[in-house]
Amino acid sequence: MRTLYLDCIGGIAGDMMLAALIEVGVPESALLDTLQSLNLTGWEWHSERVEVEAVYARRVQIRVVEEQPHRHLSDVLAIIEGAPLSERVRQSARCVFQKLAEAEAAVHHTTPEHVHFHEVGAVDAILDVVGSCWAIDYLGVERIVCSPLPMGRGFVRAAHGTLPVPAPAVVELLRGAPTYGIPIEGETVTPTGAALAVALSHEFGLQPPMRWEAVGYGAGTAVRPLPNLLRLFLGEAYAPINAQGTWQSIVQIETNLDDATPELLGYLMERAFEQGALDLFFTPVQMKKNRPGMMVTLLAPPDRAETLMNLLLSETPTLGVRYMLLNRRCLERVIHTVQTPWGAVRLKVAREGERVLHIAPEYDDCARLAREHGIPLQQVMQRALQAWQG
């Protein structure tokens, strides 16, 4: 699956997104042709390669040279509908502006239809959104994953006056999305950037397993102590199967507990598997002050890591969790069904290429038949293996 990972090193804004998309392979001339086909006037395009903390990136600036009207959502949608764009691009752009309208409506206690777009209804924001949606479609991206978003602090001047950072609309847009604070004065995530991340991303979290084909950097305009960059990774997601088996990336999450009850740990295990954990196990450990404790270890796909870390933080007394990205090699597993005198039993067959290494009867099937027929569990398992062997 063709995947785009948004690595928001210094944040995200619409112009940073456009710049990074050009750097990963979108022809700038074709992008400009698309933007110039919109029913918008009074803007100029400026693009250049710059060096930010020894990293070469692209900086794009759309300069507004004529006064722009304040637009409602319907005005913006009409511009999108009247443009020569594919339906997929139109749908993506509509979704971004719908998210923006809903956020602004929540802030100003009105409805999305009555929101007066100011900064986000200006020509540069429309070009940022439509251009980004077109470029993502041009690259054939099927799945977008976004990193947690770094949030600065301080104040920013806007059409409604001086606003705290992150701006109220950004706060509304990022409800439920993973964020973290950084020691930066200034706006690291703009409303347009937040809307692009929320509307277009299929999920937030760590980079999924993928093979990079291209990496591009988009630079913001502000000069900061930390690199003001958005990095995009474009490539194919993978979980290849070959003669050596399957190679996968997983996240291992751990925490130590000395005050958790057995009931709490049992409940935690149930919830973890419900939320996508691959495995969970408990290891007795000796903790400080000679207290016996329990180390909880959780294995998960990278895209479930944030959810499962939040589960540990909310459902246990822990004050923190640790995690690491690991690689694992798995045998190919196939399910076969065999018939026994008492009924059907599934077998898990583990292979390496054409070679069968392990065969295990499915416990639930064997236990059910043993109970129904009043026979030993071991007898059912043995007959299932004999049926496989022929």
Report mean pLDDT, rounded to a whole number.
91
Number of strands: 18
Structural class category: alpha+beta
For the report, how would you describe the main beta sheet?
A: 5 strands, mixed
Measure the end-to-end span.
40 Å
Measured on Cα atoms, how large is the radius of gyration?
27 Å
What share of residues is helical? 25-40%
Q: Given the C-alpha coordinates, what overall shape results?
A: elongated
Could you give the order of the helices and strands? EHHEEHHHEEEHEHEEEEEHEEHEEEEHH
> What is the overall number of helices?
11
Low-pLDDT regions = 240-244
**Major β-sheet strand ordering:** 8-4-1-10-9
Strand content: 35-45%
Task: Note the main attributes of this structure.
single chain, 390 residues, alpha+beta, five-stranded antiparallel beta sheet, elongated
Helix and strand topology:
Elements: E1 2-7, H1 14-23, H2 28-36, E2 43-52, E3 55-64, H3 73-81, H4 87-108, H5 123-138, E4 143-146, E5 149-158, E6 161-165, H6 168-173, E7 179-185, H7 191-200, E8 203-204, E9 210-219, E10 229-237, E11 241-242, E12 245-257, H8 262-274, E13 279-287, E14 291-300, H9 305-315, E15 322-330, E16 332-340, E17 343-352, E18 355-361, H10 363-373, H11 377-389
Parallel strand pairs: 1-4, 4-8, 5-7
Antiparallel strand pairs: 1-10, 2-3, 5-6, 9-10, 11-12, 12-14, 12-15, 13-14, 16-17, 17-18
Helix pairs in contact: 1-5, 2-5, 3-4, 4-5, 4-7, 8-9, 10-11
